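Dear all,

This email documents one entry for the complex benchmark we are building for the journal club exercise. For each entry we list the sequence lines for every component of the assembly. Then comes the predicted three-dimensional structure of the complex as a token string, followed by one or two observations. Please use this as the template for your own entries, and keep the labels exactly as they appear.
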Amino acid sequence: MPAKRTAPTASPVPAARRLRPLEGGRIALPPCDGASSLPLETCLRQRRSTRDFTPQPLTLAQLSQLLWAAQGVSGLGGLRTCPSAGAIYPLRTYVLAGAVRTAPAGLYHYDPDQHALAALWRGDKRKALAAAALGQECVEQAPLIVVLASDYRRITKELGVRARYVTHLEAGHAGQNFLLQATALGLGAIGLGRFDPDIVNSLLGLPEDEEPLYLLLAGYAPTA
Ligand SMILES: Cc1cc2nc3c(=O)[nH]c(=O)nc-3n(C[C@H](O)[C@H](O)[C@H](O)COP(=O)(O)O)c2cc1C
């Protein structure tokens, strides 16, 4: 007897990986007012990696400023705060909100052009993400985790074998912008590269051809 065949699905990409925004889950971020007054030199001097965070939530204004610093639009034609080889912008920016006021816990996609978030799913997966980051406890504690992932499709067409290399350089630029902005806001922050990208990809339900490159954590550091 021939094996029973299941009906072909409409798309080869599993539903969970298509990342459809949740209905009614759009959050317009407050405009960035450039309110912090620390000189750049002070931010450079004061920036230190923070691995302990208090549970105090971040505000939407703080999240807005951090995202803008990392990948926000700052110039005509969609040019961003972060430089990009050929202005291709291969990074995708996801926000894993654990404790951010008025943004329920879950995963969001940041749209730099609209300066807005689109909710992708709800829930708190920080504990599982910490396990995927080789047990680094700060991942479970941080009220905010920004995940920089790469979409290599267009940049590979333009830059061929250099595509991955320049994308990784760009993630470093975006990460440093984020860390310096966190310092300017009086927040603790750290960039993490020690994690299993395949586990993180599947845990967050990212498209399979996107590679998580960098986890950027921010929150309040305990006072001594
Ligand atoms: C690309 C990159 C990846 C990193 N990954 C981790 C990490 O997974 N875990 C961690 O505790 N620190 C990580 N760090 C932070 C470094 O350990 C830290 O920058 C270094 O110890 C210097 O300390 P400072 O940042 O306070 O100046 C990373 C830093 C960079 C630049």
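Observations: Residues 1-16 have pLDDT under 50 and may be disordered. The first strand starts at residue 26 and ends at 28.
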